[in-house]
Specification:
This protein is mainly alpha-helical and about 140 residues long. It is about 30% helix and about 5% strand. Among the domains are: about 40 residues; about 30 residues, no CATH class. The protein has 4 helices and 2 strands; from the N terminus they run H-H-H-E-E-H. Helix 1 packs across helix 3.
């Protein structure tokens, strides 16, 4: 007698309700939560989770949700003092020391300089005289890329 192996179709696709999708998306948006962990917990692919996120923002999963920008912690540090070379090398065996160049003094006319580094690696520098409405338009255009 010959052995025959029958391969059936894999697991059927699950049907997720809009409420279930919204709950999973909201869970993935919580602070300090990794999307991959949420996807694994619900046995879905991260690509599906991101699709649901986009649908939620577009209003396809019920009430339209607008992405709210958040704030990032900023630490202001005093500028490092310029390094000066010692007049005479210290006694003992010679060794190689790497010295970083001194920090350039601020250029005139750049009072209140603000540097904004966006997640995509784009750096935007503006000074205190920037027009707020124009800056909002620029940031809006960069967000919609």
């Amino acid at each position: 007698m010959e052995r025959v192996e029958v391969i059936t179709r894999g697991e059927r696709r699950r049907a997720w309700t809009a409420e279930q999708k919204r709950a999973i998306v909201l869970e993935s948006l919580a602070p300090a939560v990794r999307s991959s962990d949420v996807a694994r917990r619900h046995a879905i692919n991260t690509g599906l989770l991101y699709t649901w996120r986009r649908q939620m923002v577009d209003g396809q999963l019920g009430e339209r949700v607008r992405a709210v920008p958040g704030f990032v912690r900023v630490d202001v540090a005093p500028p490092a003092p310029a390094l000066e070379a010692p007049a005479e090398p210290p006694p003992g065996p010679a060794r190689s020391v790497e010295v970083s160049p001194p920090i350039a003094p601020p250029r005139p006319g750049l009072d209140g300089l603000i540097e904004i580094v966006l997640p995509g690696g784009i750096t935007l520098r503006v000074d205190a005289q920037v027009d707020g409405r124009a800056l909002r338009r620029v940031l809006g255009a960069l967000e919609g890329r």
